[in-house]
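Intended use. Records such as the EAL domain-containing protein entry shown here are meant for training and evaluating sequence-to-structure methods. They are not intended to support clinical decisions.
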Amino acid sequence: MSLPPGTAEQELSLAAAHVDLERLLREQQALLNSAGVGIAFIRNRAVVRCNPHFAKIFGFSSHEQIAGIRSASLHPSREEFKALGRAAYPSMAQGKTFKTERRMRRRSGHLFWASLSGHLINPDTPLDGAIWIIDDIDEQRRRKALLSNALREKQLLFETAAVGIAYFKQGMLTRCNPHLGNMLGFEPESLLALTNIPASIAYGTSPLSVLAQISIGSTGNFEGEITLRHRQGHNIECEARSRWVDPLDRTQGEVWILMDITERKHIQSMLTKAQAELERQVSERTNQLSETIQTLHQEVEDRKRVQERIHWMAHYDPLTGLPNRTFLAERSKEAIAQARTNQTPLAVIFLDLDRFKHVNDSLGHQVGDELLQEIAKRLRAVVREKDTVARLGGDEFVLLLPGANAQGAARVAGKLQEASLRPYQIGHHELSMAPSMGIALFPQDGENIESLTQSADVAMYHAKLDGRNTYRFFTPQMHAKSVRALQLENAMRRALERNEFTLHYQPQICLHTGEIRSVEALLRWNQPELGQISPAEFIPVAEDSGQILQIGEWVLRKAITQLQTWHQEGFQKLKVAVNLSAIQFHQPQLPELIGRILLESEISPNSLELELTEGVAISDPKAATLTMDALRESGIWLSIDDFGTGYSSLSQLKRFQIYKLKIDQSFIRDLDHDSNDRAIVNAIIRMAQALGIQTTAEGVETQAQLDFLRDQGCDEAQGYWFSKPVSAEQISALLASYKPWLPNASPK
Ligand SMILES: Nc1nc2c(ncn2[C@@H]2O[C@H](COP(=O)(O)O[C@H]3[C@@H](O)[C@H](n4cnc5c(=O)[nH]c(N)nc54)O[C@@H]3COP(=O)(O)O)[C@@H](O)[C@H]2O)c(=O)[nH]1
């Protein structure tokens, strides 16, 4: 109902309407002011009015500031503004609210995301404008983008992670990644078939059963190793962790991260085994090494001991423990040097026990050795600490007395004699043993230990000559007897017991048959200090000193024993010729001695030939003839050695039972160019033939000599042309391979 205009009612009604409108406007304004979104009235593409939030969104300090602003300026560009208009107005024209999200521009020019909602005030009259509600969703959009990124990343992780990931809710598998399927031998789809089924039904004995069971009772905080089963039945060792998806809401379930560590475990177990094996080997090797080290230690110790022993043996006499010759030499060098520097005296005593050999021969070496040990003790007890008592070997001792002059040395020698007065008790034997001593003084009797010992030895020899059990000082007159001869004589006294002698043999060839009939035994002496000494030199010394008897007996025994060996080897016809010195020959017991040796060796006397020198018969031809007869009667052959150099007469030769003359090599040597020698040799052969005596030429060295001798009718030859004197073994070899040469042919 309408009131008539100008009336009081109308006035009142208008006033009331006005009040209502104002209230409405106030309410509207309050709504706009307090709205949490931006609201603007747009008309004619310009902001007519807006609320404070709208102004704030676009960066204006008050809504008044924004009023009148072209709405296009609130958009990033004109094009986008137009595009919004094109999109919005067709539906707004139908009275619908247009909603969109667009980027808009703040007053500062910065763009931001906004949600827009537009509505025409009156769709019939679009020019009335539109209301736009705008919200700043920039932060919201950013968060959303972050969230979706995070979700994408999570999904990517889930799908591509190289660990198995499974989500469980109350024991039910809700989700799992492909890697877990792969780990357990499932296609992802078939594993998914187990999802959302109660664990008890779904897993039974399936690969995830363990996990499902743990999961049911899980605290959501499991960390450890579990064993899953592969679809094909084998075990998969896993390092597993579980966490509540939301600790505050456990109904959200839990996530399990599973890493297949089967390979690692396998490698670990192999490593553990390898390490154990390595440790075993190391400990074995360590044991071996420690054993080796122990052995090495032992070896070093042994070697040290051996070296000490070697050193000891090289410096000490093993029987008496006294220094030996080497040690004596070392000590004396020092002592002599001091004596020379300080001009002090020094004496050397050479001590040899009288008739010690007799003890050895009669009571045996054991007693001899013990006696030597006792004597050594007494010698040592007599001298001072700084003196040296050395044993050279056998029964010979040398005392080196630094600081001792003639008087001092004589005093020591006297004490030694005195000490030897007391008998030695060896076992049940009471033995007396006296020394003979020679004293040499430094420097007059020698400037080094060799010459001092030599002089003392010579003096000792004179002490022995002067009746033994005494001492003598060395004097230059003692040199009257050649030092060399004395040396040889002294050395010879020890040669037999030290086995220094050997025999060599030289074949004697029959010039009629070419056969080796006999071999001549020739003595060799290799003296350790003096070297090889020729028998031409030492036999006369041995004869002079009387030692030829012992030596000669040794030669006879040795040669006959060797002949026995050759006979046993099959050379029964072989004979041996032994040189007999005149002194030996004159021994009345000679035939008996030789007979005994032959008997002992079971050698027929016919196999032995004795070579005598022409001189044997000079002094007592009668006795010589008797000895020769006795020898010959026993069957032994006798020959005259070195024939032509002595004084044999034809009449003598006729009387002697000689079967062979050995023509001295001095006639043979020059046969080729000395007609006298040829004449002599010819005469000897003729003469011998006339007497029915055979001839042997000595020292045949050439074919020409041999030819001549054969032409002359010489029966035998001996010399380097056939063979030098050689060892018994070499003779055995020669006999074994020997082929008698034809008389007219060369023997070589
Ligand atoms: N009473 C003893 N006398 C012996 C003994 N052993 C050897 N002797 C005598 O010593 C002298 C030297 O003998 P040796 O040095 O052995 O010389 C002999 C031969 O080696 C040597 N010879 C032999 N063939 C040749 C040769 O062709 N040329 C050459 N230059 N020399 C040669 O001649 C020596 C032979 O001696 P022998 O026949 O006895 O004359 C010597 O007088 C030996 O007798 C022994 O045990 N007891």
